Give the backbone structure.
Amino acid sequence: MTMSEATTDLDGLARELDREYVFHSWSAQSGLSPLVIAGGSGSVVWDHSGTRYLDFSSQLVNVNIGHQHPAVIDAIHRQADLLATVGPAAANLTRGEAAKRIVARAPEGFSKVFFTNGGADAIENAIRMARLQTGRDKVLSTYRSYHGNTGAAIVATGDWRRMPNEFARGHVHFFGPYLYRSEFWATTPEEESERALHHLRRVIQSEGPGTIAAILLESVPGTAGILIPPPGYLAGVRALADEFDILLILDEVMAGFGRTGRWFAFEGYDVVPDLITFAKGVNSGYVPVGGVIISEPIAATFDERVFPGGLTYSGHPLAAASIVGALDAMESEGIVENARRVGEEKIGPGLRALADKHAAIGEVRGEGVFWAVELVADRDTREPLSAAGVGKVKSELVARGLLPFQAENRIHVVPPCVVTDDEVEQALAIYDEAFAAAL
């Protein structure tokens, strides 16, 4: 630290600059007081004054490999020394290596990767591919979903953020399974699956199968509540798509690359889509990147036909290098397996024990390092805990040194895939204290 830095309140300066010049997403600007993050390592971050926090948000559920993993940082450095940028029309060795590794993780029958700048434009281009492939317009997606903030992606989203932004055409929403708050009067996972599939069939029939290009689903809906699909649901959606000659797009932007303890979340649900979107965990957000993994029949459509889409930074070499570094390290270090194990052995049992202790916890659900704690005002009626109540929980967590991910009446427990057993134990103790203090 330089002498000038030592005599400057860097946290205060960061807040001042942020308040003066930065426009934040999804926020009314006047009341913001964001936490300052200056550095990090693994599952821990800190501000300039050295105050440390367990990052159980993984920022936006994307830092799967943890903060400042040396393999990823080194890969970016090496690529920056060699070539910092190149246009998408050129062939580039690092870009090819990144695409090869992604395809190697996809199911058999996938052959190409279209790189984007992030998850939203991955969704945008997957929808475009489906429409061009089928010659149809409509895209079906669930009300409980989040797919991004570009034109079609935000309208495919089901939550409130869609409503001020409905300028894209051809989108139809339906209810997916969510047994805890079932739309179908179901009492078992099997009933929920069967009735949700019946509902989707009726929507397809009512909209006209010949008008529908694709069904778009998050394999495991993330921001909407970490809604683990009930038995047979995703396979049933695949069967409906096949029956009516509709493409299936699975959104793995949040759930993919280790988050569920598998390379892709859908691997646990007996389903193979036609298009796979990804971002976040593929390189843990060290450099912005996303993409679409394309099945062979759809890729072949554009062998002789121009694909009318592209991005200046598609397959950016620094992003590609970060993918290579991240995926190689995740494989060699058993990071995906760690996510599976820590979820099964530590996070799941620990959260269920908290549910037994705190009446405000209505349900705990999840897998890997992808969990939701649903907070309620009344367990019998399942009335969601108020925004003020959830806000108080969030404040208590931050005050005790834990960064939470909060969505509606839920606290999502989503640490990096590299989280240790000791860190989970520390976090569980903090959750316990915060729930007791707030509720």
